[in-house]
Amino acid sequence: MCTGKCSKCIGVVLFPLAICAIISNILLFFPNGNVLDPKNITDLVWYFHGILGAGILIILPAFMMLGAGGAGCCANRCGMLLSMLLAVLGTTGGAYCVVISSLGLIRGPFCDIGNGNYSYPFQNDSLTDNYLFNQTTWSICKKPENIIIWNIVLFSLLLGIGIIEAVLCLIQVINGLIGFICGTCMRKRKTDIAGM
């Protein structure tokens, strides 16, 4: 496969993933669709792992990948080099999203455990007694309603998106390096050789 076409395909796939990550991160600010006092929102949301990490830091390399893979041309060595460098940045953004999302799942939600007392009731759970696998403990969170499901779904979605983005950006690092070194497609080379 031509390195330029591969670059373009990766760029096209990264755009919807970045948009989904941004939307998921924004939804974490509104647990169960409610507007809460900012101090009552899980603090990991304020790291903007979906907006910045899996969003903006992925959109930038995606644009460059589309440019480097324009019209199926692989001879654009400068474009492939830049797409490779920005893919490293994208890999970092995806990894950042994975780390924060994992911490969000492990720590659990920030919720009202009664009488307006907000805390992280599952923060010190062991892996064997984790709230993720023990739904009977979920009743400890009184408000916001369905906060545990809200957090699990959105943090899991961001975790998955971050993993996919990091893998795709790593593939682009390798693809960009090949495109920078080799420059042209094998098919184009065969055509040029046949024309001689």
From TrEMBL:
Coiled coil (residue ranges): none
Subcellular location: Membrane
Membrane topology, as annotated: Multi-pass membrane protein
Cross-referenced InterPro entries: L6_membrane (IPR008661)
The organism's place on the tree of life at top rank: Eukaryota
UniProt KW keywords: Membrane, Transmembrane, Transmembrane helix
Keyword Membrane annotated: yes
Transmembrane segments: 12-32, 44-68, 80-106, 148-181
Name of one Pfam family that matches: L6_membrane
Gene Ontology CC, one term: membrane
Family in the record: Belongs to the L6 tetraspanin family.
Descriptive protein name: Transmembrane 4 L6 family member 4-like
Organism this protein belongs to: Pelodiscus sinensis
Phylogenetic lineage: Eukaryota, Metazoa, Chordata, Craniata, Vertebrata
